[in-house]
Specification:
- Chains A, B, C, D, E, F, G, H: This is 1-(5-phosphoribosyl)-5-amino-4-imidazole-carboxylate carboxylase.
- The structure is a homooctamer.
- By secondary structure, the first copy, chain A, is of the alpha/beta class.
- In chain A, the strands form two sheets. A five-stranded parallel beta sheet of chain A has the order 6-5-7-8-9. In chain A, strands 1-2-4-3 form a four-stranded mixed beta sheet, with helices on both faces.
- The longest helix of chain A has 13 residues.
- The radius of gyration of chain A is 18 Å and the shape is globular.
- Chains A and D meet through strand 9 and helix 9 of A and strand 9 and helix 9 of D.
């Protein structure tokens, strides 16, 4: 990089990641100052040729981003800012996102939007936890059309086990930090999911809707899609 | 106690507990030497008027007990010795014991036998975990006849949540130490059960089939049964 | 549900749960926005035929609920809103709620009110922890009239063990997040209760007064009460 | 099942799972007695139409299985018994299994064989941990031909992060229980993998090579393969 | 030490500790080879002027010690070897040792013997756990004669809280590793004791009967006893 | 109690504890509302015959207490309110309180004041942690005049081990929640203290200066002081 | 110290540490009041002959320090105040500080400045985490000129393992508290670093940039530098 | 590697590491079969030009190694096999290894031998824990001649803090798994060391004497030694 790099000593953007891996780098905003996020957006503004996602944005960070990228899309529930704002045409298999309760919506929507911005056809079904089992059983036909299912759940985290036992496609389980004391900020559903008695459950980090959506996009990628490209000479 | 107490310095049997609480004391054999267990059995042999349960017996302890109480009943799977061996006539509501997998059988049988020896009508349904949900759903009518249901499960421990959502009676959840690494000897199902999204789940200690069976006997006790008795002048 | 469902994409109310399980669904308000809680209340306002409990409400959520359901009952200590506000006539056995210290009152009151709104005769005895053992021993006669006893305790969580050793009915133990550093937000009393040396202790989640009250209502249900009903064709 | 079920009170085989989910049920042998495993094999011997995997077998269990199913394939390193022994023709995308060190081989081989018996083309590359980074970088072309990569690693568990940053396909990370004290039986690599800074990492349970291989088979399934089938009327 | 020190490179005995602190050093045998323990005993054999305690001895280590110090006292339950074998005349206040259950006896006896060998009048009362509260309440007069009480308990570890609320002297609480799964090898009673709602509870390490007995000897030391002596020029 | 008890349903003061145990009950203010604390103070105002300590008071609680008990003593660093404000004449042995760093002062002062209000001669030495060992070694003569030493330390918590190795009296170790991330809010020094290689270390809860001061007062009580009194007929 | 010590009862400055150990004491400001920090600065103002570092300062503490030491240097990102403000001439080997992401900058800058103020030539390279491995590989020549490398990383904490495998000098790994839920405030990268599969990784506390910089200064000290000095008569 | 690689599918020796990093790869034997270790030794036998260390060998593995490399040096206490057996001439600064107790000797000796085989002058001082502080203080002159000090300690792990406060060189702290229950297999001393109140403490994994010795060799490397060499074209 030239010496006039406006991010020198702060960040080292990996703008080649889309070419290298098929999916662009996202900017994780937690732990960054508003000034740092704004500086990064300033550089990104010169690169409208790829989708840029800013995840886990505070309200103040989101507003600073909209100052620099005025047409960006901000989903307040998901704490996500996307620019350019248009969702690309979808390719690959269908992604289905479920959440066990209303309190898990923020995480579920982050997964949903990430999958959509990375090029997949994705939809969300809310509040189908196992305390009222008829709710998820009534969606069985829909479940069986998906190439991959993301399930966000807190508390007992039991929904992914139940879903995985009903379908043949992989299930991505996202534990959320929702629940009473012994949920321990998501440890309880995390362990439940890692111990799912039905095989086929892929676990990601607590509250990591972005990671779930990204992984879903990779699993449901078209057979001849980006992951079949030559990649270039990384490393 | 008189000075000739054969258990002096070793144990202090609570033979009045059945009068006081309605249920006799059990002898937890783990951490006791074979000699200590045998000494206790020697004293108990003079008290055939109440049921004595020896829980978590090693094979060596069980054989020593049978030497002293030859007609005792030994269930090797449950690691339980009962004397006198005859199950009393049942009173109160029905107890149903479920286990998620074959590996949970030892715990489930300990609960089953405890409830039976404490005077309840109890039966066991094995291997109905949520990985194949149709197995437990096919038992729905049976589930709805119970006054209380005990569910033993390891791994994800998801079965109690599912069952509690389907019935109106209380569910006693017993986590078992069965599973891969991140089951952490039963911590994973323990947390799942404490965080059950369906209310009505009562949790007991890991692998504690005895405690589950005892609690089930109390919950399903007849309305005018032992717990309504005057109790005596304890404390 | 029709397409004009005002909760679409947010929540999926289980209004049939009272028919199916004998007890209505409650709305756990933590992690939900004020708007989401209000939207749910708007739907519920059309269903005065059953009791609706809103648990763990913030002050702002409670006030929004009172805007929509003006005659609702709000217990600020218990953080509970109930509508319709009238406690039903009680059936079944007596529920007794104890708390070890004044700092455990919020949890104890949540259990008390839940049991009362679910149709039980329930009363509360406060501040009877084991540091002054004479306090609980002086209540022995009252303890022995209960069909089930709920005990809320933080710190050492020793009270349920002591109580369970004195009575024949089941004890529901609720650990609270009260205490010095090594109470670890309720882990210490939770473990104490799971390891109670007296059998008959049913443990629920940390600070989960609602769960304790619900379980107490189920255990003390009348013999021919709702849990004996046919249930309907769930699942 | 008929009343003469030889597994009554022990197990409840889910022989319909292959039809329902596209993949057959496996028998987890840990915690089962040799007699129980043998009884299950006796029933399975009548069902050569699908692959049966017995995982985590002890030497004694494996020998009992070979007594009943003499032509079964036993991989001692992977502790896996498969019957019928012939690997089916492969369909779908390529599966690549990496392990960080020689001590991770047992887990890696369990994943490899599972993927192969579930119908995938799979191969193994051993001992390519990040302490000598040139080892994995020299395999970059091979890595980029895979539809999904399984990475087994203990100790620091850093290999999945590095691999996921180099490829576009999903990476399944399996923590192993290999390492010095503070690896805590696999907790250290488990946390590393859940926190991978590169998106696209799906985590399964500690030492769960079977789960990793099964998930890999699902992710790399042919586009029109079993997960597109109608499934039947489960639940 | 001279260069011919037989323990060079192995151990560095602190034979001056009795002069410096008033109590001699003990030899913790766990983690030491039989040869190392024997070498230490060989040096100690020249120092009959003070009491030497060997704690946590294996049977093999104890037998090696008896080979070198034939008149040593070996308590198999407590795993303690003492030499010279004679308990000194007692000074200071009375030490009372309680244990909650028979399974806690090994720890309680280690505390008892340590206090006696360090010069105190000490006695043991066994099996007085809170599940049968009348057992400890019947000893109230004895409890109130003690200058310090040691309480060993596993499982819920509730006994020290109850005892501390009944007496004015300090209570030393020793958690033991006895109990079902969620006792976690003594963590549960350890936390209970650290969180005792009654002040006056001093906690020592899990199963550390030696430490409890030593601390008891210090607390009950005579007012003008060793801790008032000039001490010498340590450090 | 009469029905007009102003604390009915809130608290159950144990005003007889001083007679029963020799030391009065303290009021732990954390988790209590300002109104509850004030109500308790209102009752206490009628009992100037014994010392009342209010611990862990918030600023708002302390001000409310001073409104009701205007001459009470408030130590803002220790968060302690005492009434009546006069320290009683001291009896018994000397109590010495050490703290490792300035950040541990709040806890150390709470211990100091508690011991003084419970009737002991106590003094404080600040900032003598082991990073500069000469600081504590220069106090060796003072250390050896104490009947008991309280040591408050965060971070590595190493000071109690060092002090206990230098003196013959008991050491009460109080872990504090001071330190970098892996101090885990006091867990690190708590474990250090429980594992002290020098015997004679009594551990209390994290940040529990009150408990340390109380225990110190008990250990250093005069030989014929309150703990020798008849006690009365508790329980 | 004289009786008029302005820090009496608060702090015990170790101004001789630079002579004794070669490096001056730093003032850890967390947990200290603004008044306490100011009082310490008042004493330090008389000692311009050595560098004084105030670490983990709040904004309010930093401003108070600048009131007393107006020419002090305040780095807001690192939360560090240094006085006198001039960095000394560097001696010894080169120190290189890396950070994995922008969110780790605060910790990395604290290490950088500490090493510089303690007399080393140090530089920082930001945002070179393993998700884009080419970033760190492009710095290989720079890495190999260092005498010691500090690596700050959160999330998976994988960068130190990779770097240690590429160079011969020691690597100091500092885990940071950056990441999603299962990073557990830095536990995940801490464990990764302790388990680094490449030897040569020295771990310090979570977010402890000061400790990392100090250790780096010691490792890269000149061969005949302060650590070879006579030291004086400490202890 | 050629196709006839005898380690194909098992291991991937990094024989170039000495050239690349200045220190050869070691073979961690835990988790490897005797056959695998023997196969590795067979390849290594052709490379006497560098030192090969086999760490954590079982007795059976060690004997197999001696069968293939008959003149290898086997230290049974340290569980280390070295070949060729001759320690190289030492270069660089002095390494001093301390251990707190006799039970820590195995770890300390592993560190000692590793440093010696990697080319350093190293010596061991045993049993100088802080319970008898005079032991380590009497070695102060020796401590101050070292370029780096390794300290192995279990239980409270307090020795590194004390030593680091007395010297100017870095201290490498190795927690050992020695101690009573709440040492938790080394977690207690690990946390103590990470939280050392004296800066300059570098922590390695529990019981990892090899890692400590390797790091010590790197820190005490000669100024113009291997880490200044050009390294070659790794990666």
């Amino acid at each position: 990089m030239p010496e006039s790099d406006p991010l020198d000593g702060i960040a080292n953007l990996d703008l080649g990641r889309a070419d290298r891996r098929g999916y662009p780098e996202a900017v994780f905003c937690e732990g960054k100052s508003v000034d740092q996020v704004a500086a990064i957006a300033g550089v990104i503004a010169d690169h409208p040729e790829q989708i840029h996602l800013f995840t886990r944005t505070s309200e103040q960070q989101a507003k600073a981003l909209l100052g620099i990228l005025p047409d960006a899309h901000w989903d307040q529930t998901a704490r996500l800012v996307a620019w350019p704002p248009t969702v690309p045409d979808s390719t690959g298999g269908a992604v289905l996102v479920l959440c066990a309760g209303t309190s898990d919506l923020a995480v579920a929507r982050e997964a949903l939007l990430t999958a959509q911005y990375l090029g997949r056809d994705a939809q969300l079904v809310a509040d189908v936890g196992v305390a009222g089992l008829h709710r998820v059983l009534s969606k069985l036909d829909l479940l069986r059309t998906a190439r991959v299912i993301v399930v966000a759940a807190g508390m007992d985290g039991a929904l992914p086990s139940v879903v995985a036992g009903l379908v043949s496609c992989p299930v991505i389980a996202v534990p959320t930090s929702v629940g009473y004391g012994a949920a321990f900020g998501g440890i309880a559903p995390l362990l439940t999911m890692l111990n799912a008695c039905a095989p086929g459950v892929a676990v990601v980090n607590i509250d990591n809707g972005y990671g779930a959506g990204h992984l879903a996009a990779q699993i449901s990628a078209p057979p001849l899609g980006p992951e079949r490209s030559s990649g270039g000479s990384d490393a």
